[in-house]
Amino acid sequence: MQMIAEVYGVMRDGLGMKPDEMADIFARWNDGPLKSYLIEITAKVLAAKDEKSGGPLVEVILDTAGQKGTGRWSAMEAQDLGVPATVIEAAVAARGLSAQRDQRLAAQKVFGAANMRVGDTLGDKQAALAALEHALLAGKIAAYAQGFAVMSRASEAWDWKLPLGVIAKIWRAGCIIRSVFLDDIAKAFAATGNVGNLMMVEPFTTTLKRTEGSLRRVVSAGVLHGIPMPALSSALAHFDLSRVGRSTANLIQGQRDFFGAHGFERTDSDGKGFHGPWSTAPV
Amino acid sequence: MQMIAEVYGVMRDGLGMKPDEMADIFARWNDGPLKSYLIEITAKVLAAKDEKSGGPLVEVILDTAGQKGTGRWSAMEAQDLGVPATVIEAAVAARGLSAQRDQRLAAQKVFGAANMRVGDTLGDKQAALAALEHALLAGKIAAYAQGFAVMSRASEAWDWKLPLGVIAKIWRAGCIIRSVFLDDIAKAFAATGNVGNLMMVEPFTTTLKRTEGSLRRVVSAGVLHGIPMPALSSALAHFDLSRVGRSTANLIQGQRDFFGAHGFERTDSDGKGFHGPWSTAPV
Fold first, then answer.
1. What are the tens digits of pLDDT across the range A201-235?
2. Distance, C-alpha B188 to centroid of its chain
3. Which whole-number Å values give the CA distances from B42 to A213, B46, B188, B212, B233, in the listed order?
4. Do A228 and B220 touch (CB under 8 A)?
5. What's the pLDDT at A210?
């Protein structure tokens, strides 16, 4: 939902689109790989008219979202299990900050409103909309990869023997995230048993390869124009962190050894607990 | 530390700089507004030579970081309190993924290595380094704003009466995050009592205004070139979510009312629990 809201933000604030026009786009996307209950109702919410004003209903709904607490609870469990759930965490934070409307308005007064119009940063309107569709698909794959990894780890940690493929099928049949996407997830689990990383199995790998460039361009456009991108940027960061062959954690291990004598491993030797030639006593 | 590692990533992989050269830059930054123990030791870690190979030590340290669990614990408490701590969450996730080195290498094989060279995306080298310094400063302000907001809320929730200005002074005197920055935080608390949002008090507001553009350009460059930006992009998203006058949560409230009859507020009336003209029964 947060990712859909971010894409809506690019359409509304970046491209200046009206609700009816956006409704048509989401309805069209619902005939493609994004087909899902949430995309379907997004089209309906955007198309709905307000009985009082006669205008688009979405324009008179206050921009402060509530939450039941399931996102927060999932995030805490994921932290406890040591599995990244940064996309859920970003979505929870975004809802929380949306509710602080007075503070947002005060901050906007101090910092000025962002100039959100993206111009031709994403190409012409058709190109921009294609990029948004692909960005949402790529972001969704990374987010589901996190979610299924959390469940997989929970299943191991607590010996739950969760049938993750079956869970995908159950969700497919009746839950707000029901989507054609879950069919592919169920198939992936049926084919390969426990899927460590959903991004690494087909058809998700091929789809990600095809769409990651769009996710980069959409996040970049949002980032440059002040359109908040918490979930999409977290999804992209998850992908980039997950596939970087050489990370920057060597520097962090150097820092940790410097201040806390935590020791590090070496690229050229086995073993742990190597130390640098620091003359300073550990803190 | 994660933000420093991301800036190091841009220097190393985006600009092709060598450890000695990076050490000089961090040493120089330690004479400016970033002056802090972590910047100081980053310079020293980058300058250190490996006794075995004679080359830069940082190059032979394995890129898999450990963690003691304080980040995870802080993130869980922040979630429990309902206060965003997305930068800490991003840093915890980055450490966790760094430790999964075999999976990263396998994913890089499947997706290909990112072409991280940023070319002149950030201007010439001097301009790029200036942008990195400013990006780190802006990111740090947003991250500290989250951290102090968590402590402030904890203090209220548990009636701890935490003297946050004094805490800043204590950290200043002996802790790995000791930095000149904490002097300004202590002063801000002394001047204004409880600071709701550190981004909204001086000198942080003025510094953020001056540096947010650099943060945008650095995150954008990283995002476009596959240089992981989890913490810096989360910090920027936090700033953008905190100062957007009109969020996109109206769409989310529409969705929540559609599928769950959660009700919404209106922009033109007081009261809660308004509903849209949905014909579908709630799920």
1. 999 999 999 999 999 999 999 999 999 999 999 99
2. 21
3. 33, 6, 28, 23, 21
4. no
5. 98
What is the structure's pLDDT at A61?
A: 98
Q: Do A97 and B241 touch (CB under 8 A)?
A: yes
| Tokens encoding B186 | 């202590």
Residue A29 contacts residue A50 (beta carbons within 8 Å): no
Residue A206, min C-alpha distance to chain B (Å): 9
DSSP state of A228: -
Q: What is the pLDDT of residue A179?
A: 83
With CB atoms and an 8 Å threshold, state whether B72 touches A63.
no
Cβ A92–B79 below 8 Å, yes or no? yes
- pLDDT greater than 70 at residue B281: no
Residue type, B150: V
Best A3, A118, A244, A259 residue to mutate vs chain B (most B CBs within 10 Å): A244
Q: Report chain B residues whose CB lies below 8 A from the CB of A232.
A: none
For B104, the closest of A4, A245, A277 (CB atoms) is: A245
Q: Which residues does residue B266 pair with via DSSP β-bridges, in sequence order?
A: A61
Q: Which two tokens stand for residue A267?
A: 């690229």
Task: State pLDDT tens for residues A16-52.
Answer: 999 999 999 999 999 999 999 999 999 999 999 999 9
Containing H/E element for B220? helix B204-225
Residue A282 above 80 pLDDT? no
Nearest-10 crossing angle of helices A37-47, A19-29: 160
CA dist B56 and B42 (Å) reads: 13
Residue (of A230, A223, A257, A53) closest to B85 by Cα position? A230
Judge whether B126 and B222 are in contact, CB under 8 Å.
no
pLDDT > 90? residue B35: yes
b/e burial code for range A120-157 (CB count within 10 A of at least 16 → b): ebbeeeeebbebbbbbbbbbbbbbbbbbbbbbbbbbee
